Amino acid sequence: TTQSSSLLTPNLQHFLTIKLTPINYLLLKTQLILILKTYNLLDLVTGRDPCPPTMLTSPSNSTQSIPNPSYISWCQRDQLVLSWINASLSESTLSLIIGKNTFVDALNSLNQSFGAPFNTCTLQLHMQLQNLKKNDSHVSTYLQQAKYISDELSVAGKILSHEEFNAIVFNNLGPSFHAIVSAISTRPTHVLFPELHSFLTSEEIRI
């Protein structure tokens, strides 16, 4: 998510081969998600790349505010992907995102208009995540499978909080990980996926 916008401008005609209509939403959404993954922008959908503050306190004068470079960079990413959304819409669907100023707002509007048939799919994904067990697989494999399902849920409009995701993972790790789960659960700060992965893989080596 830190790449410059000059590196993130593909010719969408080579990627988005269709225009959105009321009957092909899932197909187009699948293409868009592949593009987001290719250009490391899926975190805009999952919430792992939230909008930062617009201003920061000046390091040289605590009474002054200065523009936040991270916000400027985030806006560039967001508006780039929003332009991809615009490019994917047909004339009959373009009106659905009028007044939507961010990519997430536009995607939510499209989900509300066309996503109802996928509620069953969302439920199935949630059940799949709840039922995913580590069993004899490596921790890294288990976590990547869980993250993949979580990302798919986010794309479908069901964004899991870090606490929800971690709770599901902890519940299905097995008794060998109870000690590290207890230690992580008592931490005062959020444990994000990279840190969670590091903790659990280290514990796997230890045990």
Automatic annotation (TrEMBL):
Pfam families: Retrotran_gag_2. It comes from the Eukaryota. This is UBN2 domain-containing protein.
